[in-house]
Amino acid sequence: MELPFHGRSSLTYTNLWDLAKVLAIGMPKGSYLVGWSLGASIALMMAYLFPDRFRGLLLIGACACFGCLWPEKNLRGFMLKLEREGEEFLREFRHMAYPKPFQDTLNLEGAKRLLKDYMKLDIRPILPYIKQKVTILHGTGDPITPFSSAITLYNMLRSAKLITFAGGHFPKHESLIFEILKGL
Questions:
Q1: What is the CATH number of the domain that holds 80?
Q2: Residue 167 included in any domain
Q3: Can you count the helices (H) and strands (E) in the chain?
C-alpha cells in the first residue's frame, strides 16, 4: 500500500493518526501488518487503535520517535536541503535508505508535509498497549533509524522479537523478509 503523495495513492491526508485509522479500517480482519520506516510507525498506530483486527506485525527499520533520534539542527538541515535540492536530494536519501534503485512518482510538497509530521510523532506512550506479537527486523548499520531505536522498541513492546541483519535501513535481500513472514 502506498502512502499519500507517493505513487498512485489516492489516500487523502490530514494527519498520521487519521491515516492510521483509514488504513486500518480498509484491512481485512486477521491481517499481519508489515511496515517499513514511517510505515512501521503507522502499523504500530493501527495495531493500537484496532487491537483485535490484526494478528501481528513485522516492522522493518522502525522507530517510535524519529525526531528523538536526531538533534533538532540535523532535522532542520534535512528539511532545508530537501527544500533547496528537491528531487535530487530525495534520490540521494532513497539510495541510502534502500539498497536497490526504484522509481516512484511523488508529490514533493505533500511528502514534505508527511515527513514533517513524522519528525514530530512520538508513539512511545502507546507501545506498552500493543498486544499483538511484533517482529522487529533492523539493520545493525542503519543510517536513518539507528539500531538503538530497535532496542527501544523491543524493550517497550510486550511481545516482541528482534531480528538483526548486517546492513542498513532495508535488507539487501528481500528473501529475508519472506522467510520471516513464513514463520509468523
A1: 3.40.50.1820
A2: yes
A3: 8, 4
Buried b (16+ CB within 10 A) or exposed e, 132-165: bbbbbbbbeebebbbeebbebbeebbeebbbbeb
- Better pLDDT: 6 or 172: 172
Which residues, other chains included, contact 84 with Cβ-Cβ below 8 Å and sequence gap of 6+?
Answer: none
Residue 119, all three cell numbers: 519528525
Residue 90 has pLDDT above 90, yes or no: no
Q: Comparing 12 with 163, which gets the higher pLDDT?
A: 163
Q: Work out the percent of the chain whose per-residue pLDDT is above 90.
A: 76
- Distance between start and end Cα atoms, the chain: 20
Residues 48, 53: Cα–Cα separation, whole Å: 10
- Give the position of cell 511496515: 35
Q: How many independent structural domains does the chain possess?
A: 1
**For residue 101, what are the contacts with CB-CB under 8 A and spacing of at least 6?**
95
Q: How sure is the predictor about 169, in pLDDT bands with cuts at 50, 70 and 90?
A: very high
CB neighbour list of residue 95: distance below 8 Å, 6 or more residues apart = 101
